Amino acid sequence: MELGGGFYLREPLEVDAEEVGRAVAESLQYLLPWMPWAAQEPMSVQDRRRLIAEWREDSRLGRNYNFVIFHGARALGVQGLHRRIGPGGLELGYWIHPDFAGRGVSGHAAIALTAWALSEGDAEYVEIHHDTANLTSQSVARKAGYQLLLQQASPIDAPGETGTELVWEARRGRWKRPQLREL
Ligand SMILES: CC(C)(COP(=O)(O)OP(=O)(O)OC[C@H]1O[C@@H](n2cnc3c(N)ncnc32)[C@H](O)[C@@H]1OP(=O)(O)O)[C@@H](O)C(=O)NCCC(=O)NCCS
After folding, report:
1. Looking at the domain that runs over 2-171, which CATH code has it been given?
2. What pTM value is reported for the model?
3. Ligand 1, from 97, 139, 162, 164: best to mutate by most atoms within 8 Å of Cβ?
């Protein structure tokens, strides 16, 4: 999926394990406050190859879909659609390398994946959940055209979290694809 400006999304292959691992390693301090899995890093290349193989199997079975953001051969982040919020729903999660943050790449990727989820991913609705303290994540949800649904208590799984999260929704038939400034 082309995002413009040479950025694109694609599902990773096992051969991408090293490149994705490099992006994670370079981003780790930026991810630790918000991404619970970051505390388990570093992961060996072999384990990441296995993880990517699991992602491919999940995707084949329609369980979860993980896409890597690339610019040329360089991996810059991951966006995942997870079937963990109930029937007909997919939850969108995202991270990006800090050197590429603040340019709108995650917003464009979130829009492309929301459109995909509501059509090919066969979702009735997509949600974004983020801690109330994660204002950058909130900004992505808002500019990707999501509507704020509710605020709720949520377990603190990462050190930046406060224990309260916001839930945003894009629902088929109601979500309008926003037009962002080109990358
Ligand atoms: C959340 C994240 C993916 C956003 O990626 P990004 O590529 O920078 O996102 P975008 O450039 O599309 O949008 C970032 C927006 O946040 C805004 N922003 C940046 N820092 C901000 C801050 N401290 N407070 C409020 N807004 C902020 C930017 O201005 C931009 O908004 P705009 O385009 O309307 O001006 C990235 O910050 C990240 O990887 N964070 C760590 C992992 C994480 O928190 N993931 C989400 C967990 S729910």
Report:
1. 3.40.630.30
2. 0.96
3. 139
Side chain identity, residue 35: M
Contact between residue 27 and residue 98 where contact means Cβ atoms under 8 Å apart = yes
pLDDT tens-digit readout, 67-92: 999 999 999 999 999 999 999 999 99
Say whether 95 sits in a helix, a strand or coil: strand
- Sorted by where each begins, the domain ranges of the chain are 2-171
Please give the span between the terminal C-alpha atoms of the chain, in angstroms, as a whole number: 14
- Ligand 1 atom nearest to CA at 128: 48
Q: What is the CA radius of gyration of the chain?
A: 15
How far, in whole angstroms, is CA 144 from its chain's centroid? Answer: 12
Taking CA 92 as the corner, what is the angle to CA 91 and CA 96, rounded to the nearest 5 degrees?
A: 155
